[in-house]
Amino acid sequence: MMKDRTQQAGIITIAEFTRFGIKSVIGIVLARLITPAELGSYRQLFLIYTTFSTLMMLGIPQSLLYFLPKLASDEERRQHVGKIMNLSLVLSIVFALGLLGFRGLIASKFSNPQLGFLLLVYAIYPVFMFSSSLYSYVMLGQGDAVASARFTLFSVATDAILILGTALWTRDLKLIVTGVIAAAFFQWLYTRVKLQRYRASFRLDPSFYKKQFAYALPLGLSSIVGMLSIQLDKFVISGFFDPASFAIFSVGAMELPFISILTNSVNSVLLPGISAQSDKTKMSEVFRAAVRKNALFIFPVALICYLFAPQIITLLYTDVYRGAIPFFRIYLGILPLRVATFGIIFMAIGKTRVILFNSIFTLICNLVLNLVLVRHYGMMGAAVATVIMTAISVLLYIGLVRWKYGFIIGRLIPSLALVKTALAVFLAGLACWSILSVTNSAGMQLLAVFIFGSIYLAAAYLIGALLPYDLRTALDFVKGLMAKVLGSRAK
Fold this sequence. Notes:
The longest helix has about 35 residues, at about 205-240. This protein starts with a helix and ends with a helix. It is built from 22 helices and no strands. By secondary structure, the protein is mostly helical. The model has no long low-confidence stretch (mean pLDDT about 80). It has helices at about 1-35, 35-55, 60-65, 75-100, 105-110, 115-120, 125-140, 145-170, 175-195, 205-240, 245-250, 255-275, 280-305, 310-315, 325-330, 345-350, 350-375, 380-405, 410, 415-435, 440-460, 470-490. The protein is globular.
């Protein structure tokens, strides 16, 4: 079972890494084709959608991972998914109307008149994407990671062709946004065909929605509060600075997308596994294993990105965005905290209100700290405030898990394994820094990366952070993936 979950997480991670790669290429190309002010407007559109779609969806997609594994028959799952699809359609229409009705106010608050027209085009986006966002959760809730991965690959293909193609052809922001809408339409069409058998009549079912919202509403509210906590600095910057400054800040002040891809992929298969357990010891074992494996990847990535921050930013976005380097480095401080997602424990035991209360407290404190630090330290203050409050949120979760719900922290967090991993990363980073401090030539930079990776892997294996089991699992996964690829080609 553990091996199966690892393979599912690996499949999803590879698919999401592909999405990340294409999205990154789109962002990099846009940074070269349009002005920083236009790039700021483009990013603000997605900031608005990402933040408020989380509110409108009310935790419904994530709830599928909790409910679907518990349903006994295919008919029950079909009815459940059909009702959720109907609900998401209603919510998407409300969101679209809200964007249309408040587009002037949003443009004014963001000090960006161009947003008024762009939102007129962009308003249809939620109608397509709400439905599409359910598909992967439906598949994962039924243990079909491959179907979820296929849709991810289809999505990035449409984005690459329509968004990137439009950008290269026209270099016109309005038409680029139209390309975004076209890509969303084709993704919606894909999911409508695939989920056709799940359709249900529009009929009010009070008992169903009562049960659904009892679980999903606290989760949804906590998700929007959590999202606001993460994105709050960007809203503050949008209110205090112009779109060009926002573009520079947003390029740097972000968590590495591929880290969230890893943790989300792991959590999407971890939640059904933990939810199926009734014993805290078994739940802790599943959680602990995921934390250890996450750290093996996240710790070295955080340090190597810190050391090579100037090269990463200027290579991807040119010297125009060099001002984003300090924000990028500050945000890397969040990464070590992402090895463990404690909220998933409360989701698994049905205590989603705990996530909500933690998120509300963190949001309020984050808002106050952002406003104070931005006034004193400018845009840097917003990034620092977000990192500080992320750490406080994790500490609160740890306290609640231990003192209120009786989990043993030592069984949840593999402290010795994390220390070993951190030590291996430190040794590799010290060697890498020694080379970079002497010379910054391109050849020596490549050598520094190679030495970092070699020392990290060797040290991690020798001191027991990287286990033979990890190597066998990785090898088995690659072999299994190659077999599937070759098998699909043979067909």
